[in-house]
Amino acid sequence: MSGAELRGRTAAASGEASGDVGVREAATDRDGATLADTPGEPEETGRATRGRQLRAPPPGPDRGSSDRLPSSPGRAASGTAERGLAPGLYVVATPIGNLGDLGRRAIATLESADAVVCEDSRVTGLLLHRLGIDRPLLVYNDHSAARLRPRLLRRLAEGAALALVSDAGTPTISDPGYRLVRAALDAGIPVRAVPGPCAPIAALSIAGLPTDRFLFAGFLPPRAAARRRELAELAPVRATLVLLESGPRLAALLADAAAILGEREVVIARELTKLHEELRRGRLGELAAVIAAEPPPRGEIVVLIGPPEARAAEVAPEAVDAALREAAARLPPGRAARQVAAATGRPAAELYRRLRELGHGEDER
What we know:
The chain is α/β, with parallel strands linked by helices. Helix content is 39%, strand content 15%.
């Protein structure tokens, strides 16, 4: 790699909710048919790709209630015991598309829980309706979490069994459920996993990219400058990057990633387990151009970016020094070292020491 090429690569790296409103795309039924859906708006928090909105059946007596739990400890505990579920918080994975992916243990847990804690009562209400399950629903999302969490913890301490679900996939992965899990653990309340579908893991399993080391980074910031800063922070990570993104922002993410990370392999997994499941593979710049020329894709999207491919032995020491000087002229030494590390494959700590040898001062890195 020439010094000019290396400088160009490092310079490119310097560029710049409620759960009740927008809800995830419908699951499919046991035969693979898609449930009814209507267009929805993206959620303000950016925690999930909100492609469509479910049409759930009309709420029953308990559906849509955000606070109702069995009113007395004795009743909660005895009801749980009668249904064969020990007290505690159960983290239950739900389908990301195909209802047939829901396991028997998950169904039994939802049937036996004193209540189901969900992001959106319409989404979970439709799921339970399709399963023939009638349990109280408690809406726990970014807007209700602070108010509802103490009440949930109190009921758990009194002996209730609660099932925590997200709109789709494994709870606590890019959703507010992790705070409830953390608080329950801190209070000595049993927390049990009922594993199942998870979109990032499902995408990783079929992407054909290295899986011995990967980093799940979720949604990057929607604003371009903040997104580019985070990509620059991720650039030195020698692992497959797993990201979530919405259709309207996908082309911009790919273009920024190509400029900052270089021409790495990328896989776009869309609508996993659903009727229109799609897997697209290529290089970052190539797919960025293709996606930009098409209408924004719809549905759930996972973006997987391969690890850095450059090897340190391929870069001459003189070129590394030139790249370090150029980067340090624009950035603090710590960030300059990390950006050159991403372009060369050399350890950032080694490059930071070299920057000091070249006369650049310390910073907070």
